[in-house]
Amino acid sequence: MRNVKEDGKPVLSIRNLKVSFRIEDKTIDALKGISLEIKRGEIVALVGESGSGKSVTCLSIMGLLPVYGEVSGSILFRYNGRQVNLLSLSEKEKRKIRGNLISMVFQEPSAVLNPLLTVGEQIAETVKAHRNVSKEEAKRIAIRSMEMVRIPDADRRFYQYPHELSGGLKQRVVIASGIANNPAILLADEPTTALDVTVSAQILKLFKDLKEKMGLSVLLITHDLGIVAEIADRVFVIYRGEIVEGGDVFQIFDSPQHPYTKKLLSSRPSFNKVS
Question: What is this structure's pTM?
Answer without folding.
Answer: 0.91
